[in-house]
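User: structure tokens for Sugar ABC transporter permease, please.
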Amino acid sequence: MMAPRTEAAGDGAPGPASASSPPGGPASTAAPAPVAPAAGGRRSPRPDRAAWFFLGPFLALFLFAFVLPIGYAVYQSLLKVERHGPLGLGKPTVGFAGLENYALALQQADFVESFGRVLLFGIVQVPVMLLLALVLALLLDQLADRWAGLLRASYFLPYGIPGVIATILWGFLYVPGISPITEALGSASPEFLSYDNMLWSVANIVVWEFAGYNMLIIVAQLKSIPQELYEAARIDGAGPWQTALRIKIPLVRPALVLTCVFSIIGTMQLFAEPLVMRVLSPAVTANYTPNLSAYNDAFANANVYLAAAKAVLLALVACALSFGFLSLVTRKERRGR
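Assistant: Done. Predicted tokens:
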């Protein structure tokens, strides 16, 4: 004989009988009721006053130090000096130029060539610098903490030297008759300051300055890798090379992408090194880089409006290259979502 269904429900198992129990019945047989949101607990999509209070100083500084200079540069790039009177000797006035300054900048062959020069510079210098930074980071990750700390500080030290001082230092090492490098190499010494080698002489200075900085970013990423992965690799019989190739390098990819973006932007802003080297070699012209060309227009030719147009063009190219690179390296991740 089968037991009544009401006895089975009395064992505490949830079922239709317990769900239909009248109010005031045993609590153990009641189905968990959905938690109703507390009155007034719904978050407003609009930030409250406290959020604006904390965001206010940052937004004010951001607008003053970042947005306002960009807006002012764009505004100046749309202006020009107009001269009146016989032979243009009258009092000059500032008028609206539209896109004339942009057209004039793009018509200057030296300015356009300077973009090609810095692009060639970046194509060679950025991979070399990041490869050196990656190798140094991997080697330091294998050393004991005491020696690794000392070497990290040594490699990072050039970044603490201002670019002008670093360029003067290397400039003396490039000048024949003064440099111990050229004296040691003798007739085999290359002409560091010649037109053909000047770009790579500047690239050597930039690598020396920034390889240690990029190395530190990669080292920080290496330190965030869980030790369990290294232990699992050792258990599976992986050696140092396999651990570096299959674990470390793939997991420091975000740091490599970040340093590459920084390097692309820095390449487009190349200025101090060629400006100092211009004193040592005629190979560096007034329009050697886009930044140097804008500087020359602003302070040598007294045409700040044309200089502003060149600066805006330079910013647009830097943005396009940076976002293009980010879009390229994150394409697989975006497809996987």
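User: Anything notable?

Assistant: The chain is about 65% helix and 0% strand.
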